[in-house]
Design brief:
The protein is of the alpha+beta class and 229 residues long. It contains eight helices and twelve strands. Strand 2 and strand 3 form a beta hairpin.
Length: 229
């Protein structure tokens, strides 16, 4: 890999100011996109999804805990796999208690879900010290409905909002990465957003996760919360 060109301080400053202008424009576009994401319509979740976790069976509503929002990270770990996807493993190792607490401070819960049975999940995560609770959706339609399992036999072939049968690579089924966001309003749950593939590349810290949700970063909500204490 070639190193950057060596220039004078004046030349560097000129190039840096040009790049700064582009960075600011990107920030403005990102903020506008985040605002548009918060205005995205939402869909009522009609199905009763049930997951298995370390404490037993739990519904989708149960994954919220006492939070109003929920982010589900879809892990690539199929029921017939012995281990999870290596890239997913590396990525989820960065989900710390501090990150989860930052999300909870914005009324947002976080959970990992995959189709592998709970026994395989527990065996795989043993000793790794992962903070988030990991749930099995084995036997439910959750992964299919949120397009992170492709299956030729069942006709579930959409990924990232388009048909992608080529991703099967000759296999009958496969698991793919993604994240889905949900909002609870009273007794109802709504699906607000999902991102897949390269759409997850920037999601590696609390604000990036919150930017995917319907309520966003909620800075004003957090300020009011601190004042009321």
């Amino acid at each position: 890999m070639a190193l950057p060109e060596v220039v004078s301080r004046e030349q560097w400053l000129k190039a840096r100011l040009q790049l700064l202008a582009e960075e600011k424009e990107l920030t403005r576009k990102r903020d506008a996109l985040n605002a548009e994401r918060r205005r995205l319509p939402m869909v009522r979740v009609e199905k009763q999804y049930v997951f298995e976790g370390p404490q037993g069976m739990v519904t989708l509503a149960g994954l919220f805990g006492d939070c109003r929002q929920l982010i589900v990270h879809h892990v690539m770990f199929g029921p017939d796999w012995d281990v999870a996807c290596p890239t997913c493993t590396e990525y989820t190792s960065e989900f710390t208690d501090a990150l989860l607490e930052r999300l909870r401070s914005r009324d947002t819960a976080f959970a990992m879900v995959c189709r592998a049975p709970l026994a395989k999940i527990e065996a795989y995560r043993a000793g790794r010290g992962w903070a988030p609770t990991w749930y099995s959706s084995y036997g439910s339609e959750f992964n299919y409905d949120f397009q992170v399992t492709l299956d030729a036999q069942t006709g579930h072939l959409h990924y990232n909002y388009r048909p992608e049968p080529g991703l099967l690579g000759g296999a009958r089924s496969t698991e793919l990465p993604g994240a889905s966001c949900f909002l609870r309003d009273g007794g109802e749950i709504f699906h607000t957003y999902s991102a897949y593939a390269r759409g997850l590349d920037h999601v590696d810290f609390a604000y990036a996760f919150l930017d995917m949700t319907a309520l966003g970063r909620q800075e004003e909500w957090e300020k009011r919360k601190k004042v009321s204490r």
